[in-house]
Amino acid sequence: LFYTVVTGPSGILEMVLVAPINMYVWFTLLAGLAFLPAIVKTLFPYLFHDCVYILRAICFGLRIEIYKRKTPFYSMVDGFGDAVRKNPHKTLIHFEGKTYSYLDVDRESNKVANALRKVAGLKEGDTVAVFLGNEPAFAWTWLGLAKLGCVAALLNFNIRSKSLLHCFSCCGAKVLIACEELCGAVEEILPALKEKSVSVYIINNDSSTEDIKGIRQAITQASDDPLPRSLRANVNVRSTALYIYTSGTTGLPKAAMVTQERLWAASFFQGLCGVTSEDVFYINLPLYHSAGFLIGFTGCIERGNSFVLRRKFSASQFWDDCRKYNITVILSFVIIYATITIIIQRNNDRDHKVRLAIGNGVREEVWNEFLSRFGNIYVMELYGATEGNVVFLNYTSKVGAVGRDNILQKHIFPHALIKFDIEKEEPLRNAAGFCVPVTPGEPGLLVARITTKYPFVGYAGNKQLTEKKRLRDVFEKGDLYFNSGDLLRIDHENFVYFHDRVGDTFRWKGENVATTEVSGILSMVDCIEEANVYGVTVKGHEGRIGMAAITLKEGRVFDCVNTCSVVTDYLPVYARPRFIRIQVRFTGTFKMKKVKLVEEGFNPAIIQDPLYFLDLTVKKYIPFTQENYNSVISGEIKL
């Protein structure tokens, strides 16, 4: 029976029978409410994840809007200053047994800024090329430059000669800051730098080379007093904060412009993934890399947490580091670096505090094996380009996906997948001249609408390459889209999957390799007439390894030793073609279609042309046999 309390005519409270309710009906209602969460989860399994992500994204979006409206503009340097004031003695960097607090890094950056201001005459708006390895000096050098209002160009410390000079030249820098270990690489291009009146400084010690100046003493003697805000008074949300180099889809590396707004947006990725100030982040990727610098370093500044920095990734030391420093968050790029295949299986594989991995590029089978071996680590894959205006995040930990295309995502980053002609390497257009959207589940070229709010800033010093990434008249006359150069697919649940890369780039060892750059280096070899460079898949490995189909000059034979010497002298390890195929049959365009070459791979049982393999132990290319092929596939030959 169901009663209610009412006020009677005399003002006295009375119990009144409203209506008799069947007990079974009442029980059914209560049971329905109890099972409601389970029903919602069954019908909408990712609703909770979507809501959490959307709420976080809105909060971070509002923060950017607040920073943009502040006068003066609230930059990452200002955010770092507040983090120092909040936790001055909290460790920011763990490095090779030493710790550096927020205050330590702040003071060192002040010293660097004051020294460079005095010795190099740096001022707001100047561009400075930073050629440093993964070391704490990288952090305070960038902060010091940012405090002066300077733009830092983060050079890849693996590049040499022509590529290094190109990267330096396209950013328009007049000052180069390098570390002692990279002095040899700088000396190779020193004559060209002198012609451009470039000042070169070694940050670690004094230099024995006449035209390279040591600045260590000046930094040591410089004041660590804070620098006045007026030195960067003109920095605003649209100002360029730094240049990060990307191979993109064609040509030599390009200097992607990262604005102050994009710097903030990238730093929020840790927060979007649920990282807090109590977490310890592991940075073993190069700091010149978007993931290492933007997600890792600036993300830690934004969160106010600590990070462990390594000079380079070490599979054998990875989990030992995690245990030693109580690391809780890693970049999932470490899975690419063969965390499973290289590290010897141990009894303490699950003895760690890692709870979260952030990054991209992990195959589904590797992801599953990683989790089964190392424990229930929440993996958040993401997709994005340094210069792009669209990004995806798989905040649900759905194995294999690089993102989720929710309602907010579609509104914030207007995008589409369009049909792409692999043979012609261009978008497919209909009779009206417009691009054709793919059907659900079908791979397509990702394009993102370019707007004032979500622009494509482009590359420094090359308007032509910037224009190549702009796609016009996509769905209607006059519209403008960013061409990602990547094929993605979106399934029926709105999960996004990476399919392939188009154009003249492939990815190996976590790095983009520009085929035209490698072809240019191979053309320096006397015996080679033409080189067609591409990437091929190898069982058990992420990405594609470099291979080249070459034609020889008339009457010449393949020079195994000289070719090895050239590629090792001028190309970083990840960009060197490990397989070479001597073409003896040509197409009408004087070389085989790249699509066909990629399909045939490096299997001697399929390819009748002579094949060679780069053997660094004997410093030459050696004939590649079926036995060699079997050893590569089995993992006996390490790549």
TrEMBL record:
Gene Ontology cellular component list: endoplasmic reticulum membrane; plasma membrane
Q: How does it sit in the membrane?
A: Multi-pass membrane protein
- Write down the top EC class of this protein: ligase
By its UniProt entry, which Pfam families does this protein fall under?
Answer: AMP-binding
Task: Provide the catalytic activity annotation.
Answer: a long-chain fatty acid + ATP + CoA = a long-chain fatty acyl-CoA + AMP + diphosphate; tetracosanoate + ATP + CoA = tetracosanoyl-CoA + AMP + diphosphate; a very long-chain fatty acid + ATP + CoA = a very long-chain fatty acyl-CoA + AMP + diphosphate
Specify whether Membrane is a keyword of the entry.
Answer: yes
Any idea which UniProt keywords this protein has? Cell membrane, Fatty acid metabolism, Ligase, Lipid metabolism, Lipid transport, Membrane, Nucleotide-binding, Transmembrane, Transmembrane helix, Transport
Q: Tell me which Gene3D superfamilies the record gives.
A: N-terminal domain of ligase-like
Extract the GO molecular function terms from the UniProt entry: long-chain fatty acid transmembrane transporter activity; long-chain fatty acid-CoA ligase activity; nucleotide binding
- Record localization: Cell membrane
Question: EC no.?
Answer: 6.2.1.3
Transmembrane stretches in the record are: 21-40, 46-66, 325-344
InterPro entries in the cross-refs: AMP-binding_CS, AMP-dep_synth/lig_dom, ANL_N_sf
Residue limits of the AMP-dependent synthetase/ligase domain? 82-403
Alphabetical GO biological process terms: long-chain fatty acid import into cell
Q: Is Lipid metabolism among this UniProt entry's keywords?
A: yes
Query: Would you identify the family this protein belongs to, as annotated?
Result: Belongs to the ATP-dependent AMP-binding enzyme family.
Name of the protein in its database record: long-chain-fatty-acid--CoA ligase
Gene symbol of the encoding locus: zgc:101540
